[in-house]
C-alpha cells in the first residue's frame, strides 16, 4: 500500500490575543496533520478554537495583539514564519478557505463574476476574458444554473445555498492544495447541505486536495471525514479515524457530543441530552483538564493537564487527553445503552 503524501503538519500551535480584559489563549498546544486527498474534520462547541486554528494557517488573524507559537508547515514551508507578502501569494493559490457566512464574506457591491475573476488574475497571468471563461466553468461545476448569466449578479440576488456554491467556486478557482471549509453547511436546509457535501467530496477526489472541515455537526462529519479531531477549550482532546471516534470514543467530552445526537432508529426522546454547564472562559481557564468542571468523572489527577497521546497500543493513531484508564472509559461511557455523559458525579478510583 502506497504511503500517503503529507501535505500539512501542525506542531504545538498556540495562538493568543491580548485584550482589555487580559490574555486569551484561543489555541493551546494543537498538533495535527493532513495528507493529500484526505478530509480532516475539526469538531467542537462554539468558542473551542476551531475557526481560529484555520484562520491562523492563512495568517488572517495576525495583528499587533496576536501571538503565534509552534509550527505549521505546508510541504515544508512554515506558514507561521511566512511574511505577509508571502502569505498573499499562498492564499487562494495554495490554501483557500470557504468562510462560514458567504453573505458577509462576499463583497456586497461587486458582481459575483468580478470577485472570482479578481482572485484568478491575482495569482495567474490570464486575460480578463480567459478568467471569465474559467469562472463560468467553476460556477457550472458547483451546480449554479445559467452560470454565464449569473456572473453579473450581486451576492444578495443569490439564495444562501447558491452563495455557498459561489464561495466554493471561488475557493477552488486556482486549484489549491489545501481547502479549509469553515462550517460550509451552516444555516442551509438539509437538502442543500447534502448537495454541498457531495460537491466537496467530488472536488476533493478530482483534485486530490487536502481538506480541513471545521464544523460542530457530527452528521456532516460522518458523511465525509476520514479523520476527526475534537477540540475543547482551545485544545484537541481526542483525535483518530472516523470509525475510532464514532465506535470507540475515549474522551468524556466526545461521549457527550455523541450522546447529544438524536437517533433516527430510536423513539423520539422527551428532551435531548445535553452536556451540563458552559464552555470555559479562555481568559481564565480551569486548572488542568479544561473539561474538568463539566465532567462527572473528574478525580484528583484531573488538576494536571493530560498529554494528547496514544493510550491504546492497538490503535496507534488514536490519541486523547484523559487520565481515565481504557477499562474505566469503556465502562463509564455508556449511558442507557448508548454513548453519553452521565448526569451525576461518579467517584472514580
UniProtKB/TrEMBL annotation:
GO molecular function: ATP binding
SMART domains tied to this protein: AAA
Pfam families named in the record: ABC_tran, oligo_HPY
The keyword Nucleotide-binding is annotated on this UniProt entry: yes
SUPFAM superfamilies per the UniProt record, alphabetical: P-loop containing nucleoside triphosphate hydrolases (SSF52540)
Protein's membrane topology: Peripheral membrane protein
Residue ranges occupied by any ABC transporter domain in the UniProt entry: 8-258
Keywords, sorted A to Z: ATP-binding, Cell membrane, Membrane, Nucleotide-binding, Transport
Gene3D superfamilies found in the cross-reference section: P-loop containing nucleotide triphosphate hydrolases (3.40.50.300)
Location within or outside the cell: Cell membrane
Tagged with keyword ATP-binding: yes
Signal sequence segment: none
Family of the protein in this entry: Belongs to the ABC transporter superfamily.
Entry-linked NCBIfam families: oligo_HPY
Protein name (database record): ABC transporter ATP-binding protein
Species this protein is from: Conexibacter stalactiti
The organism's taxonomic lineage, starting at the top: Bacteria, Bacillati, Actinomycetota, Thermoleophilia, Solirubrobacterales
